[in-house]
């Protein structure tokens, strides 16, 4: 049991929220809703364009490593659908995207339908899809998606092609939300199913905080600020939730976020039958997977580190420092996969999604 500011949380069965949690969830939703789709020119002019491309490469590698043809995928905090093309390349069979930000879900719908400007030249996506607007860390998604589950892959990515924020860490404001997030992932996955995720690396953030003179640190493209309550820079292992900081990243994020001590994340995930397959800081990830020729070729095409020919431009040292703030992880749901796949759930998806098809869900579910 964890006590925080008068709020008693006994875990998953009793989901209690204080007002501030709701306000922060709304702040995050409003921040992402307000972010408009950029044109290709605006995107290329971004001060963190190479970082965005690097993050896209990391997500593509994860998807190529773990998604298989025909997989049913649930994308928690799907945003504007920045990963749709990656899923298409992996030839998945069904996609459900969920996000709290109405504006982002609407952009995701436009992108899926092929209405978003920079995707007009694209052919249609090959998989049917459903979109849901709701709070992934509050709503019982097993109930909402009862007829769609089980899924083969659950994705929760912090780093999208437009923003570089992240997703599961937004659940870490209270133990109840963190538990709901993991309970949702576990309930949606089939035995042997995979959860692909990226999120801020708490070890790096705390190390940088301790090295800083005050409570703020950063460089020309980002800053992180902790409140006075953390002036001693010490964090009790008995309260690993609700450690809030403000994250600002040029042309991307300006949101409250929460520290996720990875060892706590790992043991909480185990309680929900999710075993850690690996966790790697982005720097280590790049180092390791750039040893594979197919991923080097992918990096060349995405252009994060220059294209090896004329395109010499690459990440600035400041962008590379931001990459260090993130990690990638894979969890696997315990148990043996069934031999035969059930594909009926795809009937729930559409090849063209109308505004009316978007399902809005609240916490009463
Ligand atoms: C940095 S974006 C990542 C978007 C997408 N995963 C990608 O990589 O392209 C983070 C997303 O998390 C969503 N988000 C934050 N809190 C959420 C919550 N409680 N429930 C659902 N989505 C949430 C935001 O609305 C935003 O779209």
From TrEMBL:
InterPro entries: mRNA_G-N7_MeTrfase_dom (IPR004971), mRNA_G-N7_MeTrfase_euk (IPR016899), RG7MT1 (IPR039753), SAM-dependent_MTases_sf (IPR029063). GO terms for cellular component: nucleus. One of its GO terms (molecular function) is RNA binding. S-adenosyl-L-methionine binds at residues 59, 77, 99, 135, 157, 170. Keywords: Methyltransferase, mRNA capping, mRNA processing, Nucleus, RNA-binding, S-adenosyl-L-methionine, Transferase. It is found in: Nucleus. MRNA binds at residues 55-56. Its EC number is 2.1.1.56. Residues 46-334 form the MRNA cap 0 methyltransferase domain. The record marks 80, 86, 111, 169, 257, 326 as: mRNA cap binding. Signal peptide: none annotated. mRNA-capping methyltransferase that methylates the N7 position of the added guanosine to the 5'-cap structure of mRNAs. Binds RNA containing 5'-terminal GpppC. This is mRNA cap guanine-N(7) methyltransferase. The lineage of its organism: Eukaryota, Viridiplantae, Streptophyta, Embryophyta, Tracheophyta.
């Amino acid at each position: 049991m964890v006590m925080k500011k008068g709020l008693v949380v006994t875990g998953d069965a009793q989901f209690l929220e204080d007002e501030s949690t709701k306000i922060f969830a709304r702040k995050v939703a409003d921040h992402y809703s307000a972010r408009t789709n950029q044109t290709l020119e605006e995107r290329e002019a971004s001060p963190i364009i190479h970082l965005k491309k690097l993050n896209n490469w990391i997500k593509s590698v994860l998807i190529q490593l773990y998604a298989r043809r025909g997989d049913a995928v649930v994308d928690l905090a799907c945003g504007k659908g920045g990963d749709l093309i990656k899923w298409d390349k992996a030839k998945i069979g069904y996609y459900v995207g969920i996000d709290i930000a109405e504006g982002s879900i609407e952009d995701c719908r436009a992108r899926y339908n092929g209405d978003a400007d920079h995707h007009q030249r694209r052919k249609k996506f090959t998989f049917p899809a459903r979109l849901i607007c709701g709070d992934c860390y509050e709503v019982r998604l097993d109930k909402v998606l009862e007829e769609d589950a089980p899924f083969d892959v659950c994705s929760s990515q912090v780093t999208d092609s437009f923003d570089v924020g992240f997703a599961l860490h937004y659940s870490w404001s209270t133990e109840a939300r963190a538990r709901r997030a993991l309970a949702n992932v576990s309930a949606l996955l089939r035995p042997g199913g995979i959860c692909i995720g990226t999120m801020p690396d708490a070890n790096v953030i705390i190390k940088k905080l301790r090295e800083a003179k005050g409570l703020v640190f950063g460089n020309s493209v980002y800053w992180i600020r902790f409140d006075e309550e953390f002036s001693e820079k010490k964090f009790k292992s008995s309260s690993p939730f609700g450690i809030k900081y403000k994250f600002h990243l040029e042309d991307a994020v300006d949101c409250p976020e929460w520290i996720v001590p990875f060892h706590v994340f790992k043991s909480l995930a185990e309680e929900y039958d999710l075993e850690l397959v690996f966790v790697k800081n982005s720097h280590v990830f790049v180092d390791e997977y750039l040893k594979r020729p197919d991923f080097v070729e992918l990096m060349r095409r995405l252009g994060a580190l220059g294209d090896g020919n004329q395109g010499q431009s690459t990440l600035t040292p400041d962008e590379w420092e931001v990459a260090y703030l993130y990690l990638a992880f894979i969890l696997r749901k315990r148990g043996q996969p069934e031999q035969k796949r059930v594909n009926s759930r795809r009937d729930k998806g559409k090849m063209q999604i109308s505004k009316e098809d978007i399902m809005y869900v609240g916490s009463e579910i």
